[in-house]
């Protein structure tokens, strides 16, 4: 997930799905629509696995993204990066 956060920081932010819907096809980026930022981030930090207190403190201050091991359930596995699923809390 760190790579995704670095990308968002480098690009300046994220637009909305309403403003720039994913049509499921490859094409060229409309940089004007993409630059209409609905959210930005200035930084991020990693919380160690199984640190419930750290997670509670983080959730009290900002959205938190967590990686979930779906236990080998093939419907969740993303083979490209060996990550099962990401959820925002």
Automatic annotation (TrEMBL):
Which molecular function terms from Gene Ontology are attached?
cysteine-type peptidase activity
Classify the source by domain of life: Eukaryota
Which stretches make up the Peptidase C1A papain C-terminal domain?
1-73
Q: Is Protease a UniProt keyword of this protein?
A: yes
Which InterPro entries does the UniProt record give? Papain-like_cys_pep_sf, Peptidase_C1A, Peptidase_C1A_C
UniProt keyword annotation of Transcription present: no
Name one matching Pfam family.
Peptidase_C1
**Gene3D superfamilies recorded:** Cysteine proteinases
Extract the signal peptide range: none
The UniProt keywords, alphabetically, are: Hydrolase, Protease, Thiol protease
- A single GO BP: proteolysis
PANTHER family tied to this protein: CYSTEINE PROTEASE FAMILY C1-RELATED
Q: Which family does it belong to?
A: Belongs to the peptidase C1 family.
Put simply, this protein is called Cysteine protease
Species of provenance: Quillaja saponaria (Soap bark tree)
